[in-house]
């Protein structure tokens, strides 16, 4: 009996240990970047002798930096808008409707998730190049946006689909029964209940777009987004400006993720415990 | 019924090629409490949804408050529904849930607040619940909020879709009592769907028994219990006994004999015969409480049968015996008044008797 | 759940489906077809020539250089699958069955790490794995000789990066299939006298198989396109298929070749996807196994 209990405790410890190690693994490079962003030295080796914020200043003095931020922000904002709207509509069609060719629709809207980003980028690059030579345009930010929308919409769709799946449609019937017309049902019940999922999807989409390298790299032409700025920089050589950039990136992103998740989980919980019988 | 508030005639509902309702007709009077009862899949919930406006009938006519309901959406009908899973809006407070129908009708805020508070009083809910969310209430309290939301706009008809099926037995009993009181106080028509016949008998003025998409019988609880239309209704009401008999019509009444009781015959009066009686499969419905164990005191009118006690259950106010009688497929169920002294033991051979003229003659 | 059957004539359905379908057809399906079409063309003087022949395919199939790299890509992908599953399963299991208190926080941390800029994270790994990097500095401080680890610019470095970037996917899929298992099934197994280990193998593991399969397939398919990791962490010492594709576009400006190599990877991924779903389906329809 005691041996049994010991073995169970061992299993528990090992399992919990895996999660702890995994978190260490996930955050090792992130923590390293944060640490090195405050170094005063040019070389990125330990120990860090003294602290300074000099590299943050250095980062902002790079002429390519602010244009890249602007480009990334524009791309992320527009892609997020499209991916969230398309993903939400798609999620409703995935979960709540049945229609002819639905299997094909599902396959078509899910497939980009199963594509390595590089290949997705290459495939679209070829198409835009052919199209560009026919119609006379060259790749730039708008092709990046299209690429991001194709890549990110399936993610947004999955996030919203979870919320749609947990949605109790009798609530809409109840609203109708209480005297609501179609628009009122949507405004009073459907949208507020799906909103946390849509909001999470938007945050997800924004961060995926903001940090995307592969597709931007394939489709940007001569334009530069932040990840391309970093990639071409580290190809030349390490510099503490990149850890500084990573650290700057982190804080708003963490805030966004935490808000979205807390918001979504609270709503899901409320939804599932709102009905005693379900 | 002078002018029914609900008048449904020949309602047919098809789902694809499957027919859920085969021409159902039902009238509900103003202020009446009607229960739709039947096993699952009998069409009772479909009928309720048609009344509420969530389903369009394939065929048939539905009038509520004298107006044809064809094409009238749920929102514009004088009906309000209490949903099986209550369907309280999880993102709205209790006050906003109850006040929702009034908000949609653009009732002024002050009046809305008054009426919401009024409903809260009526439902015996504490005023400080107004700012809570549904998830913060108990099952019984959520039930009351759902009722309040349905009643706040003073509907002509309240539709209830098995609203108490998720509650535990004790809570259910107290809510049933309250529902009955509420109905008496408000004078609103109630239509309740339930699979629980006991609930229907307790609450309803009239019961509509449904089976396989047909209405089998509509009547008062006493009609349904004592004068069932056929063996399905009689069996659905509760465990009971059917004694196969041969019946010959004699005037308004009938002459019955049973091969199990050789030599005995009985006259059944007209009011003890189901109107739908057919030649096939006639049987006497003998309720468990109208059978007794006879020793040497059988009266001349009584039919007696011999059997072996298979099992008994002490139910408190009564004791139920299951007695195996040769020639009968099912054990005979006998309910005797509860007593500390058991009249028979398992394995004992006993003689049971009942008065056939007090039984009810019906057919399959 | 109420599900509405809708006809294509319904404007609500059209509004929900059409825009997304159009985007996906115009910018995903058509490009895919275009890629396949391009593999039958050739280039002359760095320009595309519409020729309709099998020249590119003959080149791809006859050069052992390509085959070596393709094979290496598949092997790396399989190793990556094995490592990812070995890490993701216990972690997802722990998250689903233990750690009740910190579950939300841990999930947010994982999602956040997943969403952080991949190039920056990969750069972080350079700083760790470098000969003078964080890993060796730490090891030296616990008594290892200096330069104990030499992982940067080796296939092992590539692998660390690949696992790092992909392990979250099987964690999500496995976690989702684990939390969907009815707790009563596990209790029923205990009740029937099964030990914890036995219950795990008889109930939990078989029921989490859908998540396991889909996670494994995702890792495999996404591994095939690994580019940053072999380039930045592998230092080009053992190039993978992505490098061939990059070269055919950037160095050789040979689109048909790039397209053909891309198609090879897509077909490999699709084959794996088909195989595993066929396998999963066969398992599901096997007699005596609940669907």
TrEMBL record, chain A:
Lineage top rank: taxon: Bacteria
Swiss-Prot/TrEMBL keywords: Cell membrane, Membrane, Transmembrane, Transmembrane helix, Transport
Full protein name: ABC transporter permease
Record domain ABC transmembrane type-1: where: 69-263
Localization annotation: Cell membrane
Pfam families cross-referenced by the UniProt entry: BPD_transp_1
Primary subcellular site in the record, as a coarse category: membrane
Family indicated by similarity: Belongs to the binding-protein-dependent transport system permease family. CysTW subfamily.
UniProtKB/TrEMBL annotation, chain B:
Domain ABC transporter: 6-237
UniProt cross-references to InterPro entries, sorted A to Z: AAA+_ATPase (IPR003593), ABC_SmlMolc_Importer (IPR050093), ABC_transporter-like_ATP-bd (IPR003439), ABC_transporter-like_CS (IPR017871), Mo/tungstate-bd_C_term_dom (IPR008995), P-loop_NTPase (IPR027417), Transp-assoc_OB_typ2 (IPR013611)
Keywords from the UniProt entry: ATP-binding, Nucleotide-binding, Transport
Keyword ATP-binding among record annotations: yes
SMART domains: AAA
Entry's Gene Ontology molecular function annotations: ATP binding
Family classification: Belongs to the ABC transporter superfamily.
The protein's name: ABC transporter ATP-binding protein
Provenance organism: Mycoplana rhizolycopersici
Automatic annotation (TrEMBL), chain C:
Name of the featured protein: ABC transporter permease
Keyword terms of this UniProt record: Cell membrane, Membrane, Transmembrane, Transmembrane helix, Transport
Family of the protein in this entry: Belongs to the binding-protein-dependent transport system permease family. CysTW subfamily.
Membrane topology listed for this record: Multi-pass membrane protein
Transmembrane segments: 12-40, 69-96, 108-128, 211-228, 257-281
Gene3D superfamilies found in the cross-reference section: MetI-like
Domain ABC transmembrane type-1: 70-276
SUPFAM superfamilies assigned: MetI-like
Places the protein is found: Cell membrane
Organism annotation: Mycoplana rhizolycopersici
């Amino acid at each position: 009996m005691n041996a049994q209990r010991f073995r169970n405790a061992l299993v528990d410890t090992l399992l919990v240990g895996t999660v702890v190690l995994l978190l260490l693994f996930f955050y090792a490079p992130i923590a390293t970047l944060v640490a090195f962003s405050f170094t005063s030295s040019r070389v990125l080796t330990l120990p860090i002798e003294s602290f300074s914020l000099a590299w943050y200043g250095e980062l902002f003095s790079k002429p390519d930096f602010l244009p890249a931020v602007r480009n990334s922000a524009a791309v992320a904002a527009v892609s997020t808008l499209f991916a969230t709207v398309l993903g939400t509509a798609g999620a409703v069609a995935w979960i709540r409707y049945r229609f002819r060719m639905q299997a094909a629709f599902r396959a078509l809207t899910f497939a980009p998730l199963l594509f390595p980003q590089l290949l997705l980028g290459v495939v679209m690059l070829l198409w835009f190049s052919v199209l560009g030579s026919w119609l006379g345009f060259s790749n730039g930010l708008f092709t990046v946006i299209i690429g991001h929308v194709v890549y990110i919409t399936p993610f947004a769709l999955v996030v919203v689909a979870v919320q749609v799946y947990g949605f109790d449609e009798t609530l809409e019937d109840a609203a109708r029964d209480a005297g609501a017309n179609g628009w009122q049902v949507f405004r009073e019940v459907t949208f507020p209940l799906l909103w946390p999922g849509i909001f999470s999807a938007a945050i997800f989409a924004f961060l995926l777009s903001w940090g995307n390298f592969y597709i931007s790299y394939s489709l940007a032409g001569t334009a530069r987004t932040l990840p391309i700025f970093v990639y071409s920089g580290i190809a030349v050589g390490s510099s503490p400006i990149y850890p500084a950039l990573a650290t700057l990136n982190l804080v708003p992103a963490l805030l966004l993720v935490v808000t979205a998740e807390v918001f979504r989980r609270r709503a899901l919980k409320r939804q599932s415990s709102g009905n005693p019988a379900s | 019924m002078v002018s029914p508030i609900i008048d449904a005639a020949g309602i047919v509902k098809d789902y694809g090629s499957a027919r859920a309702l085969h021409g159902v007709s039902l009238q509900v009077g103003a202020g009446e409490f009607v229960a739709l009862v039947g096993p699952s899949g009998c069409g009772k919930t479909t009928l309720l949804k048609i009344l509420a406006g969530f389903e369009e009938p394939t065929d048939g006519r539905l009038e509520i408050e004298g107006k044809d309901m064809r094409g009238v959406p749920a929102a514009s009908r004088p009906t309000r529904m209490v949903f099986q899973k209550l369907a309280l809006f999880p993102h709205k407070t209790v006050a906003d849930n109850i006040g929702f129908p009034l908000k949609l009708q653009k009732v002024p805020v002050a009046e809305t607040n008054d009426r919401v508070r009024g409903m809260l009083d009526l439902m015996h809910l504490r005023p400080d619940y107004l700012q809570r969310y549904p998830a913060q209430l108990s099952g019984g309290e959520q039930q009351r909020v759902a009722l309040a939301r349905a009643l706040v706009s003073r509907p002509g008809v309240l539709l209830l879709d098995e609203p108490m099926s998720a509650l535990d037995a004790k809570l259910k009993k107290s809510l049933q009592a309250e529902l009955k009181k509420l109905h008496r106080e408000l004078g609103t028509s109630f239509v309740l769907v339930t699979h629980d016949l006991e609930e229907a008998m307790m609450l309803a003025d009239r019961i509509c028994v449904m089976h396989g998409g047909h209405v089998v019988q509509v009547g008062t609880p006493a009609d349904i219990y004592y004068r069932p239309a056929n063996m399905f209704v009689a069996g659905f009401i509760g465990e009971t006994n059917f004694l196969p008999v041969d019946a010959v019509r004699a005037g308004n009444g009938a002459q019955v004999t049973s091969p199990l009781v050789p030599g005995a015959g009985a006259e059944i009066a007209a009011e003890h015969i189901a109107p739908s009686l057919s030649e096939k499969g006639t049987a006497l419905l003998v309720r468990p409480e109208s059978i007794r164990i006879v020793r040497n005191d059988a009266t001349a009118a009584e039919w007696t049968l011999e059997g072996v006690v298979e099992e008994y259950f002490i139910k408190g106010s009564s004791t139920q015996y299951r007695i195996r009688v040769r020639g009968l497929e099912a054990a005979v169920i006998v309910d005797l008044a509860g007593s500390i002294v058991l009249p028979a033991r398992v394995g004992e051979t006993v003689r049971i008797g009942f008065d056939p003229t007090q039984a009810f003659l019906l057919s399959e | 759940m109420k599900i509405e059957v809708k006809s294509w004539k319904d404007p609500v359905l059209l509004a929900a489906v059409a825009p997304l379908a159009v985007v996906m057809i115009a910018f995903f399906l058509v490009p895919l077809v275009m890629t396949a079409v391009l593999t039958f063309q050739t280039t002359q003087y760095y320009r595309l020539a519409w020729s309709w022949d099998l020249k590119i395919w003959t080149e791809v199939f006859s050069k052992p250089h390509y085959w070596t790299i393709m094979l290496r890509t598949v092997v790396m992908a399989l190793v990556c699958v094995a490592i990812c599953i070995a890490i993701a399963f216990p972690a997802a299991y722990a998250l689903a069955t233990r750690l009740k208190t910190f579950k939300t926080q841990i999930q947010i941390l994982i999602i956040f790490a997943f969403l952080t800029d991949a190039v920056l994270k990969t750069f972080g790994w350079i700083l760790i794995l470098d000969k003078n990097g964080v890993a060796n500095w730490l090891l030296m401080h616990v008594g290892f000789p200096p330069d104990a680890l030499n992982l940067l610019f080796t296939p092992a470095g590539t692998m660390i990066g690949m696992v790092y970037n992909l392990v979250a996917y099987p964690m999500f899929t496995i976690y989702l299939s684990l939390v969907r298992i009815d707790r009563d099934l596990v209790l029923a197994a205990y009740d029937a006298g099964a030990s914890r280990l036995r219950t795990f193998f008889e109930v939990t593991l078989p029921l989490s198989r859908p998540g396991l399969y889909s996670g494994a397939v995702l890792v495999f398919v996404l591994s095939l396109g690994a580019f940053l990791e072999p380039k930045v962490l592998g230092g080009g010492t053992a190039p993978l298929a992505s490098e061939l594709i990059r070269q055919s576009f950037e160095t050789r400006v040979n689109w048909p070749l790039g397209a053909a190599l891309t198609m090879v990877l897509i077909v490999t991924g699709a084959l794996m996807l088909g195989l595993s779903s066929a396998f999963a389906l066969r398992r599901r329809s096997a007699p005596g196994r609940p669907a």
